[in-house]
Specification:
The protein is mainly β. Helices cover 13% and strands 62% of the residues. The chain has an eight-stranded antiparallel barrel.
């Protein structure tokens, strides 16, 4: 029992011990953004499939350490993920077997947001530490603009073009992440892995459908990405 109390006291003292230096830091990091779940799915029969491809993510953050191990963090995140137009074309051809289909897109899934939360830091040495962070905020995203060209297999002169315009959506978002910081003089080398998620509804989607009719509709898309970023931070 005495050993248990001693361990608890040590942990509590570590948590609330305020170290005088390196309380603040700002960081900028970038790296690949991997789509997850429905956002990555290429099932045309599922309206929540995003056909998203690996893209790039950028994160700017400000962190303030309240105690030796606990702090607050604010993050601005931006991500751009391409559209898997080949998988989309293959899915359309599977349904419309009388046509050859090609798809092109002029824009990516793109968007970002502002989030704030808490982080825990665990120093292994004076220069090297491990962080765990969680945050909540808001996200805005643009869907890609997609153009579909179809040619009748039996009549090459029978050609059609369909499109889906870019749409926008805004919703809450949350993030969980972990990473490492290594101090060099007044700078940190940063390596982080962060998961971002936001349930979005695009209310202003429009285009020209396969029946040669204009349409306006709404659709739901759960955006979720895993971002591996490398960057530099300045502490003060």
């Amino acid at each position: 029992m005495r050993y248990t109390l001693l361990i608890l006291l040590i942990l509590i003292s570590q948590l609330f011990y305020a170290q005088p230096s390196r309380r603040n830091y700002v960081g900028l990091a970038a790296g690949p953004s991997f789509p997850m779940g429905n956002f990555k799915s290429t099932q045309l029969s599922d309206s929540t499939s995003g056909f998203a491809k690996t893209g790039v993510g950028v994160t700017f953050n400000y962190s303030y350490r309240i105690t030796h191990n606990l702090g607050v963090v604010a993050m601005i995140n931006y991500a751009s993920n391409g559209f898997n137009y080949q998988a989309y074309a293959d899915s359309l051809e599977h349904i419309h077997t009388t046509h050859n289909v090609s798809v092109s897109n002029s824009s990516n899934w793109s968007g970002g947001g502002i989030l704030a939360g808490l982080f825990l830091t665990f120093p292994f040495s004076d220069n090297f530490s491990w962080d765990v962070r969680a945050s909540f905020g808001f996200y805005g995203v643009y869907s890609p603009q997609v153009t579909i060209n179809a040619v009748n297999k039996d009549d090459p002169n029978d050609k059609s073009e369909y499109y889906r315009e870019k749409a926008s959506a805004f919703s809450y978002a949350y993030s969980f992440g972990t990473g490492f910081k290594y101090a060099l003089s007044k700078y940190y080398l940063l390596v982080f892995v962060d998961y971002y998620a936001s349930p979005l509804t695009f209310d202003n989607a429009s285009g020209w459908d396969w029946d040669n009719k204009p349409y306006e509709t709404s659709f739901k898309q759960n955006i979720s990405t895993l971002e591996l970023t490398f960057g530099l931070g300045y502490f003060f």
